[in-house]
Structures are given as structure tokens and as C-alpha cells.
Automatic annotation (TrEMBL):
Alphabetized Pfam families for the sequence: DUF2385
Entry superkingdom: Bacteria
Name of this protein: TIGR02301 family protein
Lineage: Bacteria, Pseudomonadati, Pseudomonadota, Alphaproteobacteria, Hyphomicrobiales
């Protein structure tokens, strides 16, 4: 299916969750030497955002700028250099994984996009609920 205009109802909710996550995860002090308990989830979220950065323009041009959102999320978390590299690496791995599979929007790509949006929203909500309140 070539470039059908379609807006997911999850995008506004994900944007709101992203903002809440950004505000809620700001550390009280300086950078941490030890990974926070949500690091694994943050890496998965960064990976998903990298995947979305590849897939959404393929299937839904004009959508969210997932690269910018990931950069803002990483910046707001104030990671040390090691964590920043792991988060950026996860984003790049997500992008590369889908770039190897798809050259055009297919039913499979659309399904992957939908599943990734749902997982991103669930992961962001879980991080926010468990660690930002």
C-alpha cells in the first residue's frame, strides 16, 4: 500500500506521554554513575522510536519526527556518555532493523508500524507510572 494518508489515534496520546515522561524523569541532581532502574525500558523505547523513524515516513508521510522526539527524551534524562551512546545505539539499531526489511510500505510494514506505536505508548506509560510519580 503506497503512502496512504493515515493518522494513528495513538500519536496525540504518545506525544502527551512523552512530555510527561520528559518532565518526570529529570533527575534532582547531576548525572548518575549507575544506570537508573528504567534504563532497559528507555533503550527499548529508543529502539522503537528508531523503527518508527524509518517506518512512518514510508507508510504515513508527514507524521511525527521520531528522531527529534528521541533526542529530546534522551537530553531530558541527562544521561552520562555511556548511557547516551547506548540509547543512541538502540535508536540506530531500530532504524537499521526495519531499513533492511522494507523499501516500500506493505501490509506487513503497516502492521509493524501499528504494533510499534502501541508498544511505544505502553512502554512510555509504564516508565512514567513506575518511575516519574
Amino acid at each position: 500500500m503506497a503512502n496512504r494518508p493515515h493518522r494513528s489515534p495513538l500519536l496525540p496520546g504518545l506525544r502527551i506521554l512523552g512530555i510527561a515522561l520528559l518532565l518526570g524523569l529529570l533527575p534532582a541532581g547531576g548525572a548518575r554513575a549507575v544506570d537508573p532502574p528504567y534504563q532497559g525500558q528507555m533503550e527499548r523505547l529508543a529502539e522503537i522510536m528508531g523503527s518508527l523513524y524509518f517506518l512512518q515516513p514510508l507508510c504515513q508521510p508527514g507524521g511525527e519526527d521520531w528522531r527529534q522526539q528521541a533526542a529530546e527524551l534522551i537530553e531530558a534524562d541527562l544521561p552520562d556518555d555511556d548511557r547516551r551512546e547506548r540509547l543512541a545505539g538502540a535508536f540506530n539499531a531500530g532504524y537499521s532493523a526495519y531499513a533492511r526489511l522494507y523499501r516500500a510500505c506493505t501490509l506487513s510494514a503497516e502492521e509493524a508500524l501499528t504494533r510499534l506505536l502501541v508498544e511505544a505508548e505502553r512502554t512510555a506509560r509504564d516508565i512514567h507510572t513506575r518511575y516519574a510519580e
